[in-house]
Amino acid sequence: MTPSPPSDRERNGARTRLTVLDAAETLFAERGYTGTSLNDVGVEAGVSRATPGYFFGSKASLYQAVLDRCFERVRHAIRSGKERALASGKDAEVVLAGAVSEYFDFMIEHPKFVRLMEWEALSGGTKLQQAPPLVEVVREALEAMSAELEVGPSHREATAQLLLSIISLCSFPLIHSRTVLLALGLDPADPAFAESRKRHVVELVVQGARERLASAAT
Questions:
Q1: CATH, residue 154
Q2: The Cα angle at residue 94 between residues 93 and 98, in degrees rounded to 5
Q3: pLDDT tens per residue, the chain (218 residues)?
Q4: Residue 2 in domain
Q5: How many domains does the chain have?
Q6: Considering the entire predicted model, what is its pTM?
Q7: CATH of the domain at 36
Q8: Cβ neighbours of residue 167 under 8 Å, at least 6 residues apart?
Q9: CB 156 within 8 A of CB 141
Q10: Closest Cα partner for 95 from 151, 41, 42, 46?
């Protein structure tokens, strides 16, 4: 069945499409893929129930558009961070500390992305298995970190382990904001806690990588 066209009020295509995309990202992050319908997205966006289908065709296509936009944000952050790191001329430890700090800030600023990835993990990653951008982003992040730390292909596995550690340490407070952090009386949205956590993560990663980085340099 072909979706009905939107009303005249909704015919500003670019603006309406963005509104629908924002609403979909919010709902998919809150409820997951199976818990969200196109009708729900229309209500959240303040448009007719048919409008999401009119612009995106299906829920699967809308979800893919949400993921693609999230990955593009990650890719932009990786590239800009790499450019700043390589232009700084600083030593590997300073570059690593800056990279961890930037990644932590990105996670705090994009909690919906964290939630989307959490839903994907809980559902077995079935949708992400069909998302080449995920593979591209991860590979680009690994290559960027290798370039920033000036390590070669022989240290690829060690660099991958380091990247996994950074992701885990930065995302944990957001993923467990209503479980472990709640039990500890901590709030990841509290700027003071976020700053303290960031310093802690940076120190852990730099200290843990110091010996490996020294070995790679020689």
A1: 1.10.357
A2: 115
A3: 555 555 554 457 889 999 999 999 999 999 999 999 999 999 999 999 899 999 999 999 999 999 999 999 988 888 888 788 778 888 888 888 888 888 899 999 999 999 999 998 888 877 776 666 777 888 888 888 888 777 777 778 888 888 899 999 999 999 999 999 999 999 988 999 999 999 999 999 888 877 665 665 55
A4: no
A5: 2
A6: 0.82
A7: 1.10.10.60
A8: 103
A9: no
A10: 151
